[in-house]
Design brief:
6-stranded parallel sheet, Rhamnose ABC transporter substrate-binding protein, Peripla_BP_I, Bact_Solute-Bind_Prot2, 4-stranded parallel sheet, 10 helices, alpha/beta, Rossmann fold, binds alpha-L-rhamnopyranose
Length: 365
Amino acid sequence: MSLRSTRPGSVRRLAPVAVGLVLAVGISACGGTTRDSSAGDTSGSTGAAAATANPDAPIREGLKIAFLPKQLNNPYSDIEAGGGQTAVTELKGDYKLVGPNDASASSQVSYINTLIQQQQDVIGIAANDPNAVCPSLNQARDAGIKVVAFDSDAAKQCRDVFVNQATTQGIGETLVKMTHDLTGGQGDIAILSATPNATNQNAWIAVVQEELKKPENAGMKLVATVYGNDDDQKSFQEAQGLLQTYPNLKAIVSPTTVGIAATARYVSSSSYKGKVAVTGLGTPNQMREFVKDGTVSQFALWNPADIGYLAGYAGAALASGQITGKQGETFTAGKLGKYTIGADGEIVLGPPTVFNAQNIDQFNF
Ligand code: RAM
């Protein structure tokens, strides 16, 4: 499992229960391999595999580092990219932000192709689909561009590292723990996710499904998983649909900042307010009004700016030869401190924070 040696300064202390949960778990996919061992990959060659890391290599100045989030019109993405810009500025690089307006599977491909033509040094991508971006990302790598997946992973064989916001297992467990707290562990629950192809949400949902099989969670029944596509209106309608279709619903769990905000907005002005719990992953600034009005009492997130920041530093370390993406390599990410690359090229930011009425006003993002 990969470990940080320094806690991110801007992520405040978790509620004790969540700290225990998240710290107690490991990475779900500890295969012990890195992209270099992806034998049988048919999606492209990766010329960088033979490189050797030089931890003392200086960070090159003037690196062209481009960020390609899932979509641009999502406050979460803006915060992430803002952190990336901070890192690139600190590193005296050349920052660029591009991206689609929707999070559909193939919407990022044309942007990757343009970034290759522009001879960027690094592409940071939150993949809308793990495989749809693969051929283009491997073309980029063949052209000498380092690829940092962040937030939502691309398939392992088409990126150099993945900056994960917290362990996949830890996020899934936190979602179930919050739902258990809010429902007393009893009743019908539903998931309102992002897009059906999203790597990150699908990985978290898989952990939720496993957690629900445990005896202590046996009283909760997952009756539906629906997709708002990280589109506010569609998410709003899906929330409405769930509540109409499942009259006994006790909680909607939305592991997306777009979905939870739309769900909370619908529930807050409906007769379900106070009767159906809303939880999941949201930004404090989007969720504050729904915490204050009693619609939402617990949700979680990490600091999205720190993901972008860490991705920027990881990209610069790759492009400067400090790291190659292999397990055990280390690099320093500015104010966040030192990180070690874990199995499968994964770099874990740190534990998420659980927000509630007591602590939400301490956060402004
Ligand atoms: C949305 C996006 C993003 C995810 C957050 C929690 O903003 O789907 O990828 O990490 O929610």
